[in-house]
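Researcher: I'd like a structural prediction for the single chain below. Treat it as a standalone chain; there are no partners to consider.
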Amino acid sequence: MSIYVTGDLHGDPRRLSSDVFTEQKTMTRDDVVAVLGDFGLVFQPEETELEKLFLDWLEGKNFTLIATLGNHENYDRIAKLPVEERFGAPVYVLRENIFLLQSGYIYTINGKTIFNFNGAASHDISDGLLDGNNPDWLEQAMKLQEEGKHLFRVKGVSWWPQEVESDDAVYQRGMNALEAVNYNVDFVFTHCASTRLEEKLGFHEHSRLSDYFDDIEQRLPARTIWLFGHYHINAVADESRFCLYEQIVEIA
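Model: Treating it as a single chain, here is the predicted structure.
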């Protein structure tokens, strides 16, 4: 029973094809593949034909897929998904073998303990944030594009405020879960990194979430491995801190 991890999919899971990810040929549903945020297959206002096509394809795989949530997810749609307890904590159920993890919980998967916390602050909105409830948003978007401004998002259409957790209780839930095990977990799965690691990698995206991760990171034992995505690079950020993008890595 193995655990593999990879970075952002952004709605395109083709790297998980058997031609690329050949290890799956001998895997079973007891084996787990984890996506470190920006899963992106619950993104459009309603499920599209392409989303369904890819999800049906993944449902046919002989492994279990789990995903941390990133900043490019439709949190409104995800909140309406059924919730079950798997791996010792609540998950959103997308397909019989596809589960979306929730923030502030410790999951036990194939004998390994994994603390998960979702989200990240978007870094592709420097040209503005439009309101999807404004009837003129499409006209505004076209104007921005005509001006060569493409780094914008539309609230409720391509951006959701839930990308960075705002509920104090969820942050506290995470701390309580870690304190209960004296911060002794095998892995941490997040989408973005701590503020310290962001700065080390050359990204300056300070947020409440990355500061929270700073606090957690200082309390973890040296053996804990922290894995994250978000930055579209494959990099060793520190001795036990790793950023993944296209790579698929076996961790257990």
